[in-house]
What does this fold into?
Amino acid sequence: MIGIKLPKFKQISINEIKEYVNPKSVYFEIKENDEILVKENDTVEIGTPIIKNTKKETFIHSSVSGKVKKITKKINSLNIETDFLEIENNFKEKDIFKKQKISKLDKKEFIEILKQNGIVGLGGAGFPTYKKYDNVEIKTLIINAVECEPYITADYMLTVNYIKEVIEVLNLILEIFNMEEIFIAIKTHNQLLKDKIIPFTNNKIKLIEVPNLYPMGWEKSLVRYIKHTDYKKLPIEKGIVISNISTIYSIYEAVYCNKPLIEKIITVTGNAINKPTNIKIRIGTPFNELIKICGNYNTDSVSLVAGGPMMGNSISTDQFIIPNNLNCVLILNEQHELKPITCLRCGKCSDNCPVKISPVLVKDNINNKSELQRLDVNRCIGCGICSYVCPSKINLREYVQEAKKKVK
Amino acid sequence: MKFNVLKGPFIKSKNSTNKIMKNLFISLIPIILFSFYKNGIIPYVHNKTDILGLFYPLIFILIGLISTFIIEYLYTYFFLKKRKQELKEYIKNSFSIFPGLFLALILPINTPISILIFGCFMAIVIGKMLYGGFGHNIFNPALIGLLFVVSSYSAIINLNGGYLNAYEVDSLSSATPLTNVNLVEGIGTYDSLVKPYGTIKDFFFGTIPGAVGETSAFLCIIAFIYLLFKKVIKWKIPIIYISTVFIMTYIIGSVNNLGIWYPLFQIFSGGLMFGAVFMATDPVTSPTTSIGQIIYALFLGILTVTFRYLTNAPEGVMTSILTMNMFVMLLDRLGSANKLPIKKIIIPFIISILLILTISFKVGNSFKTTKNSSDSNFKIIEKTNNYYIVSEKGNGGPIKAKLTIKDKKITNIEIIENNETASYYKLVEESNYLDKLIDNQSEIENVDTVSGATISSTALKKMFTNVINDMESEQ
It folds into this structure.
């Protein structure tokens, strides 16, 4: 079994899901191949498509009703200043996303709904979901509700509150694709979550408990554990599709309520904020507007992390914009990094690497390009275990990332 | 409001190099205390030493670790020109007490203090600092220290008493059990290898002569379990190393019809356990990859057996580890290969298995022939229901004797002809050795040979054993 035990820190943010639906403005990052579908000073409704990516054929929808403003510079969740399209909220949105009865769908119609509503994978990578499902034959669907990084509870809270909706759409998907089985993967020893899901399981929709290890939520680990098989690039090679449970919930909203991807649940937590909690937010909200809901910072020098503690990255301002694939913001009372000392060569980084890279040897050969190629550093998934386990506190992931750039 | 931009991951394990070293030290405490018991308390209780001798083992170890600390401190101050905070941090993260501590534990107790300090100096300067200090050395520093001490001063150490502590000097006649292996004829027997020091149990618990802290296999196993539990040891190395030696010596033993005691004797002596648990697993000088560690350990085992049987160096552990230290980089390269090319990796495994088998059988069989030839010295000249007339090769030529038999028991022995040196044979006569053999013929292995007339008395014993075997085979 690949993986390590990590401290949890999850309990602190488990309470109710709060809502923040009134941002003054929302911002949408303009990326490569993006086409803006609206003009300055246009008035848009909530859910109006505003940006189309011509290459991926995905849409981004306005998450408030309001006026289109100029393109402005803002900080994104990777701490890079870049172009954003601003929509100024006029607070006149109508509640148009009511649940409707739906007629029978076929595969094509289903995929078109995903495409039109801009559904992307919410687990982190942001891969267009319609592409995942647009495959000849899907035998197995794995619902990833593992959430193996510490601190994050967004998927947990979503599952606890919306399991009925999730199951409803899973039954629909099962029917449309005529799948063999659906697994809902959760961590072991999560009795409350188990009790919530068990009543809905049957011989096709199964609950599977996976070990409490990191990175168990990594797709390869899940496929290995559940289906005892391995794939090269994508799980569909083995007839498997993996979706995050929050993606499934957004599919539900798209199919039953005709609601595009404009909202998501995000965990705001850490030891430097007074009330860690989960908040349902409009995508494109500047993060600093959420601070009040979380009871403000409890110190005036913090470290802000977009993402979980293992994979996330540090951000230099709290005015960054929340994108659709961010599920956690950590606010930690950390002032400086631990000072690394000489490598002991204990080999723990190599022992624990889920893709079997030897980070210690990458570090030794950082200036030797051919050796780095031989070590196949491109396999790195950036899980951060090497840096976590290092007794000498060497940030080995940094070395591997640097090596990745060098061999490109 | 201040936002600190830091590099992730933002949680770190509580494990630290400091903790690893602390655990290593804790695991050595029972071994240090045992050395105090064996080399200090026992001789003191038997009135073989004074109060200084009682605490001498502890003083010896303390001098070792303080020496390396001071030598490294001075080196850092004068040659690396580090001062104040920088010096303090360098020393703090350099763990300089360990080479001295280990060196003291693997030296004979009678090593003069000046030689111990010389070894510490070599360990730190040649073994560690010249490579760039902690984490950069290729060879195990303590073993480098030992190498210099053994190669330059082993004669002085032996003159000074060698491995035997004050109590052992009076009760034992020869040096360590493994040096004894080279002295006995052929592969040796339970009598010649284990018996002089007690039983296999003594080997296991460590009440046998040997270096200051490496005699107790039991405590090494306890330390291994502790370090395994604390996850601070490359556990594959000692397990595979010891298993390889065990398997090879088991084969060698079985070829010569020796019992399970033989491989046990081999793995419990010569500091193998201590070397495997503490020296071969030194993180800095052992491979970091799993496959590298496995091959490293396999070859450690093969080399140790090779050194023990095919050279005059009885110990073999130090030499094996230092030899394999040179290949660590190569093994890591192999173990970290992209997508693990099975073809490449399988080669060292096949080679090591072939080596294990060929060396074991070759060594085993070479001893077998010497044993057979010595057995062919025994001749039955005449045999009736009441007596045997036999001959057995002694020191100066054949010994002929008539052994009277009653109810399948030897009741009397009469030497018909003997060419032994008179002064030696006199010792046999004086010690009533023949009577002892007759009295204890049911457990003849337990009869001690006559010191000073070893070959003559062994020949007589063999004569007895062969006659008894012959009588039993008649049944």
User: Anything to note?
Assistant: The two ends of chain A are 31 Å apart (CA to CA). Chain A has a mean pLDDT of 92. The first helix of chain A runs from residue 107 to 116. The longest strand of chain A covers residues 66-75.
